[in-house]
Amino acid sequence: MSPDLQNALTDFIPQVVPEIVLGVSACVLFLGATFRVSRHVWGVFALVALTLASFALIATIRSLPLFTEPPTTFDKSKWPLYAAPVLFTPLALFFKVVGLVTGFLLVLLSWDEGGEDHAGEYHGCLLLLVAGIGLVGAANDLLTLFLALELISLPTYLLLYLPRADERAQEAAMKYFLLSVFSSGLLLFGFSYLYGLTGTTNIPALLDMFASGQERLAPNPEASTQQPWVGVTLLALVMIVAGLGFRITSVPFHFYAPDVYQGTTTPAAALLAFVPKIVGFAALLRILGYVPGLSAFERPLGTAMGEQVPMLLWIMAAVTMTLGNILALLQDNIRRLIAYSSVAHAGYMLIGLAVVRYLANAPGESVGGVEALLFYLVAYGAMTLGFFAVLHYLDSPDRPLESVDDLAGLGKSHPSCGLLLTLFLLSLIGMPLTAGFVGKFLIFFDAMGLSSQNAEQARLYRILALIAALNAAVGGWYYLRMIGVMYLREAIDPLPRPRPAPVVATIAVCATLTLGLGLFPQSLLQLIRDALPRPNAQLVARAADEGQAVARE
Amino acid sequence: MTITLNHYLLLGAILFVCGAVCMATKRNAIGVLMGVELVLNAATVNFVAFAHYNPSFEIEGQIFAMFVIVMAAAEAAIALAIVLNFYNNHATVDIDTAEELKG
């Protein structure tokens, strides 16, 4: 083992200090919860741990250079990092920050959820989840990526299982668990073929092999030199997209969502609506090589990744949003409705992923698919977490908030809650001045913007934009129906006045983000754009060759 | 007959299909869990076979397999907790009795 490689395997530790802090705190929570039962002690401890992790992240940013590919001057001594299991790229930083903010919001949201005796374990799981989000964003190796995804899945099972032991909650936990494990199996099987085709689990090296058409199914390369293994590559990619499609609730794998959201607690449903989506899209971006500024992006990725996968994403996007919206029309239970709405939103986000390849080569594009996708993710997180937070605030064991009719008269009996729900719903529809509008605008704009290169592609994506616009209109119906029920109908049995709780802080932050991102989208867009450097193609090509050699050493 | 990589890949594929079929058809929660293990192990077989049969490949395959084995154990632990709780509620591990959530 060369000293360079050895350094690459140990140098990454300073990059994951925030995750280490979170992991150690989670262990303290798991251990401590056996000695002391208190909701408030462990809640405060979790907040302190998240604050510490934030400081650790700030210290990391100050002390470590962000690993921006490609380097402005080609410096070979930097490239051993290419082989590191995690890479502290600007995009990883973006996901770490999103993860930490989500962590704060979720801890506050689930402060008084479930039994007091499980509070310690519950918050410990939340911390592990936040660490997992950061690691998925930074993963540079299939193994790290897989383990980071599992670091999110395993605590999620516990979060579904811990708070309530009744039949419905347990059924939801069982359903989610079995399907989630199967999706992990699919993903792993796809990974095994990728490894077999390239001989490496390092993601940049792997993408370079695909870019230069070197993938082979070992062991007799002579027999197959003429034939790059498109079939096996495609099979592997379909399995990976399917495995991650479960997490983002895209269509063939969406059917668990309504049942699980309905059966579990409101905070857990909020978590399921957002966290798996972030990591699913982060992992897809990374494996499909759709991150601008990272290695193989500037070069064609071969037929499988370059042309067939975008087509697959196109179909998934169209079917996902249409089915999600149509089925949401039929729902009466609020959480089932939001589950289908989350399926529909996954469809909109998939458009951003599907156009990435085609916008990459267009010079001077102001907004690429990835920027739009990341903006939409943040906007979606703010409005959905906010919506669930208000529901959770109003919900009480004596008077559960289940069906849309339970919202009747809310505009009069709880004016501020009604107003906030309306804000989040308008944002979910995509009304101007809200974050949801800007997100949808950017995504649709991307799909319309493919003009110059290939007339047929451009037409296809215009059709996709049209489908999305029709869907947005259909979606308006069931969101507006909820607003209508709140303001136009009288309550037969008004909801009780809720007591002040930490969840109010979550609602406030989400409302501020939803409005703020709607009024000043430039601030976040600029941040995202800085996280995605525009690469210099020539340097990328040279760097990739070198890096591949190092990674294989 | 010499055993080649293709045989192992075939074994992996068959294991995967068996696991998937097992998950789809079993009504017993423990049976479904066994299907899950088959699917995970199918991928493990692939990893190890690839790493063994290609001289230019390094030990990533074996390492991946080790991690997957540990992860599968962790998953099984959580699964059993969930199944146990399911049994407390339903007095059976037949997952067809779980039909509260529909819509």
Helices and strands, with pairings:
The complex is a heterodimer of chains A (553) and B (103).
Chain A: H1 3-10, H2 17-32, H3 39-63, H4 90-109, H5 119-138, H6 142-161, H7 167-198, H8 203-211, H9 230-247, H10 256-263, H11 266-287, H12 302-329, H13 334-360, H14 369-394, H15 410-413, H16 415-429, H17 435-448, H18 455-488, H19 503-519, H20 521-531, H21 537-552
Helix pairs in contact in A: 2-3, 2-5, 3-4, 3-5, 4-5, 4-11, 4-14, 4-19, 4-20, 5-6, 5-11, 6-7, 6-11, 7-9, 7-10, 8-21, 9-11, 9-12, 10-13, 11-13, 11-14, 12-13, 12-18, 13-14, 13-17, 13-18, 14-16, 14-17, 14-19, 14-20, 16-18, 16-19, 17-18, 17-19, 19-20
Chain B: H1 5-25, H2 29-53, H3 60-90
CATH class of chain B: Mainly Alpha
Q: What gap, in angstroms, lies between the N and C termini of chain B?
A: 55 Å
| Element string of chain B (H = helix, E = strand) | HHH
The secondary-structure element order of chain A is HHHHHHHHHHHHHHHHHHHHH
CATH topology of chain B, by name, is: Helix Hairpins
How helical, in percent, are the residues of chain B? Answer: over 70%
Helix vs. strand class of chain A: mainly alpha
Biggest interface found: A-B, 47 and 52 residues
Supply the number of structural domains of chain B: 1
Radius of gyration of chain A: 23 Å
N- to C-terminal separation of chain A?
A: 8 Å
Which range best describes the helical content of chain A: under 10%, 10-25%, 25-40%, 40-55%, 55-70% or over 70%?
A: over 70%
Radius of gyration based on Cα positions of chain B: 17 Å
Overall average pLDDT of chain A: 83
Poorly predicted regions of chain A: 70-78, 362-366, 535-544
Task: Decide which structural class fits the backbone of chain B.
Answer: mainly alpha
